[in-house]
Write a structure and sequence with these properties.
Rossmann fold; 3 domains; 4-stranded antiparallel beta sheet; 20 helices; 10 strands; about 65% helix; binds adenosine-5'-triphosphate; binds magnesium ion
């Protein structure tokens, strides 16, 4: 199994530079802005490169006219020009950022939305397999990666190269080729050194990040298990485990720091040596009168200026590599096709009487473990069919297949004669109401959770549904009433309360077809009886598939199917099945005995 840590920093993976081409659509959306930003970039660089030239003229003028009658306004104008150029360089690059910000932010927004929609398109199987934490990190890193790539390749690498070329051009025109060569050699050595050391350092950075994730996950897992820790008095043990992780983290961060120091020191050394060599060349030429003092100042200014963007090069290079990998993962995620899709030319499901037919279906979640075998039954319009059977027999699977969370392997499921694979998923799902076996709620108010069944419903309708699901008393007992927050996944409600919310939602949705999967299993017998009454009312005139463990709740069903090991082993009405004296009669006998016993003991 891949651990969290490996998952998080896949830097070993060679980045695929082709990913960059996937970014074009995001740039193309704002062509005008991109061009404007590039124009501002060129202006900023021109101003940067011109600044040392202005400095040269100031120094030369002052130097050559020292002691003589100097026209003070000339150097003053030059100084103003010098200052303006410096300001211009910053102004243009800030403007460029401002202009480009919209492009990068919009790209992040577009990608986030695309991913979100794509994830909702994916089949249930994908979501059962995913690791939410890891997926969320992939998405976050991927979207950040896109923004980083857009901003840094365009506005760090390209401009740095542009600046080096401009400076080399000026040096070539003003001085001789010796300076250009010296600077180019320095730049090449600097770049090669930075990239090499950065690659060497990557493992320390990765290690530090992995340890960071690890200790974080450890702390979070421990806090999530707060109650369990208390049950076993294991605070000290937890602290020790956490501290071990922290120890690893400390070591990794230390190595990271030291290697960063090596990088910085090495870079400074290269700059220092380059400075010495080039300035020494210039000293000789000033002494022999070949170049002026102003030229000397200019070279110095160029050297200082040139290495500033290069300083960040190691960081930018590493981040770009990482961003490429992250974006590639994101694009790959987007490229995966959902396993359940609307067929080409799928039509809308037309429901007349809502008759459901399971026609000799076979199904397996995994090829090596068949679940349903030759299941064949139909639910006539307006009838209720109940499915009973041992845990794991495949009852909920029937419901998932009808809802088309999965496609059957053989046979077909039809509603009013239409194969559910030939109609759109949206039209299919709009006619089915499900009360699932485990209800999970949104971390929102009770009212919003109820209204989810039909966001267009009026307050009156929502309250009516709550009443029908016997939630009114409970809601009135809450200090915040309908505005009560239900907590993450609805954990602040009891199991029975959640089930009643699920029932109210389905009442609001008001579909012609109902699936009740153990809809009342978490209720006490009194509430159960009351709700069964309500459910009966709702399921009247509707085609209903009921799944239940407690046989007393389904004895009125038109037909009862008994499932065992993925097959239907018996079917008939309650009385027929009792009379047959088979599986069902046996189950009924058993449940009755235990119910009698529990009543006696009360
Ligand atoms: N996504 C899945 N991947 C693989 N196997 C699964 C998956 N979902 C369910 N199963 C298996 O399929 C079998 C049938 O599951 P199902 O949920 O239909 O049982 P059930 O009859 O509803 O049981 P219960 O009464 O406990 O709810 C079980 O053995 C279960 O382990
Ligand atoms: Mg089930």
């Amino acid at each position: 199994m891949q651990s969290y840590a490996d998952n998080d920093y896949p830097t070993d993976h060679k980045p695929d530079w082709k990913v960059i081409s996937g970014l074009w659509p995001y740039l193309a959306e704002f062509r005008g802005r991109v061009v404007l930003a590039l124009a501002l970039l060129v202006l900023a660089k021109l101003a940067t490169v011109a600044t040392p030239v202005a400095l040269k003229y100031i120094v030369d003028y002052l130097d050559q006219n020292r002691g003589a009658d100097m026209l003070l306004w000339i150097p003053l104008v030059l100084v103003v020009g010098y200052g303006s150029l410096r300001f211009g360089a910053t102004l243009f690059s800030e403007l460029r950022d401002a202009v480009f910000a919209r492009v990068a932010e919009r790209a992040m927004r577009r990608v986030s939305l695309r991913i979100f929609e794509h994830l909702h398109q994916r089949e249930l199987g994908f979501h059962l397999d995913r690791k939410t934490g890891g997926l969320a990190r992939d998405i976050e890193r991927g979207t950040n990666g896109i923004s980083f790539l857009l901003r840094f390749t365009l506005f760090n690498i390209v401009p740095t190269i542009l600046e080096i070329l401009l400076v080399a051009g000026i040096l070539l025109v003003v001085f001789n080729v010796g300076y250009v060569l010296a600077i180019l050699v320095a730049v090449v050595v600097y770049v090669v050194f930075s990239i090499r050391i950065t690659e060497w350092r990557t493992k320390f950075v990765r290690e530090a990040n992995a340890r960071d994730n690890q200790s974080n996950s450890r702390a979070i897992d421990s806090l999530l298990n707060y109650e369990t820790v208390k049950y076993f008095n294991n605070e000290r043990y937890e602290a020790q485990l956490y501290d071990q992780n922290l120890d690893d983290w400390e070591q990794a961060r230390l190595k990271n720091r030291l290697s960063l120091a090596t990088l910085n020191a090495g870079q400074a050394l290269i700059i220092g040596v380059a400075m010495i060599v080039i300035m020494a060349m210039a000293v000789g030429e000033v002494a022999s009168g070949e170049i002026t003092l102003g030229d000397f100042t200019m070279i110095n200014a160029y050297l200082l200026q040139l290495f500033i963007p290069l300083n960040a090069l190691g960081f930018v290079y590493r981040e770009i590599r990482q961003a490429l990998v992250n974006v590639e993962r994101l694009f790959k995620l987007l490229g995966d096709e959902p396993a359940i899709q609307d067929a080409a030319g799928a039509t809308e499901l037309v429901v007349a009487s809502a008759e459901v037919q399971f026609d000799h279906i076979h199904f397996a979640y995994r090829p090596d473990r068949p679940i349903l075998q030759d299941v064949n039954f139909s639910i006539p319009a307006g009838h209720t069919v109940a499915v009973v059977g041992a845990s794991g027999a495949g009852k909920s699977t029937l419901a998932r297949l009808l809802f088309r969370f999965y496609d059957v392997d053989q046979g077909s499921i039809r509603i009013d004669g239409q194969d559910i694979r030939q109609v759109t998923q949206a039209s299919l799902r709009s006619v089915i109401g499900v009360v699932p076996q485990d209800t999970v709620l949104f971390n929102d108010t009770l009212y919003r959770n109820l209204a989810y069944g039909n966001p267009a419903a009026s307050e009156e309708q929502v309250h009516r549904a709550a009443r029908m699901a016997h939630l009114e008393d409970f809601i009135h007992s809450l200090p915040d009433g309908y505005a009560t927050k239900v907590g993450e996944r609805g954990l602040k409600l009891s199991g029975g309360e959640k089930q009643r919310v699920a029932i109210a939602r389905v009442i609001l949705k008001n579909p012609p077809l109902l699936i009740l999967d153990e809809a009342t299993s978490s209720l006490d017998s009194l509430s159960e009886q009351a709700i069964l009454g309500a459910l009966k009312e709702v399921s009247q005139q509707r085609t209903t598939l009921v799944i239940a463990h407690r046989l007393s709740t389904i004895r009125d069903a038109n037909t009862i199917l008994v499932m065992d090991g993925g097959r239907i082993v018996e079917s008939g009405s309650h009385n027929e099945l009792l009379a047959a004296g088979g599986h069902y009669a046996h189950l009924w006998e058993q449940q009755h005995r235990s119910e009698d016993n529990s009543q006696l003991s009360q």
